């Protein structure tokens, strides 16, 4: 899901929730927001959101998204789309060159890009 689609879907859910709450005289937002947040938190642990850049763990995500659902939920849908389509950047523990910050093979002592000898 593209970022704009994610924002539109979130607004649609939000406005739909408000309209529906008015129709049945009962505030369904009390279930809608925690429900979608819980789904996203569980789903984020399945797709291992933590392994990606700007990703967070499911518990941290649940807290953040509960506080700022209108931003957190579309952000999650957008990140999820990037992860599932292979466009998200993985956090890597591979060593980087101390001089030029290029990812390098840990067995190499000399950086292939800038020629710096690693400590
Ligand atoms: Zn280098």
Number of domains: 2
- The multimeric state of the shown protein is single chain
Q: Which structural class do you get from the secondary structure elements? A: mainly alpha
As residue ranges, the low-confidence spans are none
Any idea what the shape is? elongated
Kindly state the percentage of residues in helix. Answer: 55-70%
Work out the radius of gyration.
20 Å
Mean pLDDT: 90
Instruction: Please provide the count of β strands.
Output: 0
The run of helices and strands is HHHH
Distance from first to last alpha carbon: 44 Å
The bound ligands are:
zinc ion
Number of helices: 4
> Biggest sheet: strands, sense, closure?
none
Strand content: under 5%
How would you describe what is shown here?
The chain is mainly α. It folds into 2 domains: 3-84, no CATH class; 95-119. The protein is built from 4 helices and no strands. The longest helix is centred in the first third of the chain and has 22 residues, at 3-24. Zinc ion (ZN) binds at residues 97, 99-100, 102, 111, 113-114, 116.
């Amino acid at each position: 899901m593209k970022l704009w689609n994610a924002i539109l879907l979130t607004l649609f859910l939000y406005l739909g929730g408000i309209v529906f709450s008015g129709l049945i005289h009962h505030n369904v937002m009390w279930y809608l927001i925690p429900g979608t947040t819980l789904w996203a938190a569980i789903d984020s642990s399945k797709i291992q959101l933590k392994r990606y850049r700007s990703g967070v763990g499911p518990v941290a995500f649940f807290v953040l998204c509960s506080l700022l659902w209108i931003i957190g939920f579309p952000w999650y849908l957008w990140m999820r789309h990037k992860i599932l389509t292979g466009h998200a950047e993985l956090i890597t523990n591979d060593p980087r060159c101390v001089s030029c910050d290029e990812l390098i093979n840990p067995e190499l002592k000399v950086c292939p890009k800038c020629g710096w000898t690693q400590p």
